[in-house]
């Protein structure tokens, strides 16, 4: 069979563009010594573990913190909302700063800010203090999340990027799974401030290991403060609207309108720039754009499923909290097991194929959990959640790899910021979907409906990747 011309830019490909590959090879050589390379990789992965553990621990400790600070549970939700809003507000600006000032410098600033804010959390005497500290934690976390894979791309050769993304997914999955158990263990022997204090020594090690990261100069491009303000306002309004949409519909609608206006102004302002804050240049690429859309759909469906399952297990199936945790564990553990393998395999085959198979597996697992008569055989939930973990691991690693290889090396920071933004937008949409279903339907049926909705969203993500994959590989006929 005769091979046709190379695929056009903006389509799925298993290899980076030649220019990007040569750029990458030059940058990867900046970390020649194997011990230094391992230290650089470990610093990035450890920083990801740090910020994910922080989120997981804080989420499960909300009731304890609310009781200790003598505040209503509804007010304690702002501990989570402040962190999430700060993340969304800062991901793209941190990516832009990384490209301008150098990835390592901004990454280390982010870790330093995160650790200072973590100390503030541990010392917080009031809810207001804690919310402010969590806001600062989110700003620091944004630098880590936006630049993690961009830094790995500078450290490892291009042919190992899929494996590096798999390591990153493994670190996130393991810390997500360990966070609730770690938080429960700490709270069983100590007060809630220790949830944050135990992270400090770990963060100190990350800061020291970050010296091994390559010090690649940035572009020295000046930051556009008005664009940063519009970006922050867009996402802050969006997150707050999502938090009040079921209780104050009029306020939520007004905030959504304000968010849309600010986004429109931001796009108009950034449209003609060579390296816009919102990466419009990357979004013009078919491959990158499809990866972003699929990521939002996948994370929305996954979040709807993860939020719905505990309610389904406890309210509809009568399980205790401990058993609920037992039935949830196979999902992140399977992600942790499959992610490194998916990273290696995605270097050898079309990322579109892995995304499609992963999306279908995740969709099938969620649909099975919604439709299977689990009252008769609850153990059937274990292979279904494992199927969800398998699907998410395959999809996420391959989709992220495609997203980064669709962007030139010089725009790795922007790709990382957009990847993190897509993830958080999807998670926010999934949580809002779950809330709306609870308000519209009886509590005993809403979780199953949310599982079904999550299955549909992931099926759409798989379909998009399949269609794009067909388009990308039509030249091989």
From TrEMBL:
Q: Which residues cross the membrane?
A: 38-62, 74-94, 106-125, 131-152, 164-186, 192-213, 225-244, 250-267, 288-313, 325-345, 352-372, 378-399, 420-441, 447-467
Note the topology in the membrane: Multi-pass membrane protein
Annotated GO CC locations: membrane
Q: Which GO terms describe its molecular function?
A: transmembrane transporter activity
**Subcellular location(s) per record:** Membrane
Query: Which keywords label this protein?
Result: Membrane, Transmembrane, Transmembrane helix, Transport
Q: Where in this chain does the record put each Major facilitator superfamily (MFS) profile domain?
A: 40-470
Protein name, please? MFS transporter, DHA2 family, multidrug resistance protein
Please tell me the species this chain comes from: Pseudomonas borbori
């Amino acid at each position: 069979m005769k091979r046709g011309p190379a695929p056009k830019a903006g389509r799925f490909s298993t290899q980076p563009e030649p220019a990007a590959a040569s750029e990458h090879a030059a940058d990867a050589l900046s970390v020649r010594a194997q011990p230094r390379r391992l230290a650089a990789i470990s610093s990035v992965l450890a920083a990801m573990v740090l910020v994910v553990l922080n989120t997981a621990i804080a989420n499960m400790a909300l009731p304890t913190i609310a009781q200790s600070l003598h505040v209503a549970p509804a007010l304690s939700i702002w501990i989570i909302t402040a962190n999430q809003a700060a993340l969304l507000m800062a991901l793209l600006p941190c990516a832009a700063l990384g490209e301008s000032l150098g990835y390592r410098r901004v990454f280390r600033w982010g870790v330093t800010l995160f650790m200072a804010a973590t100390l503030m959390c541990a010392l917080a005497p009031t809810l207001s203090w804690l919310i402010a500290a969590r806001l600062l934690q989110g700003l620091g976390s944004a630098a880590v999340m936006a630049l993690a894979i961009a830094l790995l791309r500078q450290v490892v050769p291009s042919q190992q990027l899929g494996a590096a993304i798999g390591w990153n997914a493994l670190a996130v999955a393991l810390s997500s799974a360990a966070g609730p158990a770690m938080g429960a263990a700490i709270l069983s022997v100590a007060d809630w401030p220790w949830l944050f204090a135990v992270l400090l020594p770990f963060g100190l090690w990350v800061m020291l290991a970050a010296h091994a990261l390559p010090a690649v100069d940035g572009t020295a491009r000046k930051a556009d403060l008005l664009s940063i303000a519009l970006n922050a306002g867009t996402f802050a309004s969006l997150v707050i609207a999502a938090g009040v949409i079921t209780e104050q519909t009029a306020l939520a609608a007004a905030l959504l309108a304000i968010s849309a206006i600010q986004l429109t102004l931001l796009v108009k302002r950034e449209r003609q720039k060579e390296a816009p804050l919102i990466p419009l240049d990357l979004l013009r690429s078919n491959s990158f754009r499809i990866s972003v859309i699929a990521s939002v759909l996948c994370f929305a469906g996954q979040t709807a499923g993860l939020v719905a399952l505990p309610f389904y297990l406890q309210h509809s199936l009568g399980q205790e909290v401990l058993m609920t945790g037992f039935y949830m564990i196979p999902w992140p553990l399977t992600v942790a097991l499959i992610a490194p393998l998916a990273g290696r395999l995605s270097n050898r085959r079309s990322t579109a194929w892995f995304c499609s198979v992963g999306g279908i597996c995740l969709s099938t697992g969620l649909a099975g959990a919604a439709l299977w008569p689990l009252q008769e055989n609850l153990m059937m939930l274990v292979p279904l959640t494992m199927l969800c973990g398998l699907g998410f691991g395959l999809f996420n690693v391959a989709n992220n790899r495609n997203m980064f290889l669709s962007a030139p090396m010089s725009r790795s920071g922007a790709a990382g910021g957009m990847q993190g933004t897509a993830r958080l937008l999807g998670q926010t949409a999934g949580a809002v979907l779950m809330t709306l279903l609870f308000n519209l339907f009886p509590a005993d049926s809403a979780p199953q409906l949310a599982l079904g909705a999550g299955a549909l969203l992931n099926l759409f993500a798989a379909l998009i990747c399949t269609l794009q994959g067909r388009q990308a590989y039509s030249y091989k006929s």
